């Protein structure tokens, strides 16, 4: 078993804590991130990859003996890719994941249950060419996916630490459909100390067990946050109030979103068939650019979550 398992962070149950301040964030057209998001997530050309992301080109049969190199790169950089000479079977993919931790049962919407193999491997396959307003179906439609930490509304213990994506069939280059990444440390660095402290006491109020939007784990800032787009984001603040107002918290969320969509921070993966990517969900926000290609519905990735 790997030594890279998550550090369990103590997060008090929000339901037992007094709400000091509550509020609602509704994005406005004039918020800077709205245009920045539109520009970055609807582009068809692919962004460059994060520096040094490729660990090795391997025969798939070599992967079990070389997984330690992937672990090391994950530890150093939080993201690692290997290029394989063939596709992994589901069993091989799960075995790889088990070297990094526990492969999680894939909880998903009933609408997507048919995409899950053996409870563990999710087939991220485009089934629809439209752009839908249905949150669950967006994954298998052409939608861009706004930046998020995976299942950030759940308690830390039920969030994946690592996510692996195995490319069965990529979108053709420069036709959108690119997985994109933004490092959380750099987002944190764009906040003032006061803003960061505020986010350490703010939670999604509809999810009483959700961690604070920002916490420190292993000496690094970790966001449990996602961009709700134009959906309503209800929040609760449970820290020392001082003179804090709901307006100030909302202004901090605008700043957080603006930082997340800073074009200087975003990188993407130039997918090729049979590549395997793993990243640390505590170190990167991720998302997807809109799929522009319409001729085929072949785009297909396999996905496992590890904690
Ligand atoms: Fe995701």
Automatic annotation (TrEMBL):
Domain of life the protein comes from: Bacteria
Keywords: Antibiotic biosynthesis, Iron, Oxidoreductase
Keyword flag Ligase: no
Annotated SUPFAM superfamilies: Clavaminate synthase-like
Residue span, TauD/TfdA-like domain: 55-301
Statement: the UniProt record of this protein carries the keyword Transmembrane: no
Cofactor: Fe(2+)
PANTHER family listed in its UniProt record: GAMMA-BUTYROBETAINE HYDROXYLASE-RELATED, TAUD_TFDA-LIKE DOMAIN-CONTAINING PROTEIN
Official protein name in the record: TauD/TfdA-like domain-containing protein
Naturally occurring in which organism (per UniProt): Fodinibacter luteus
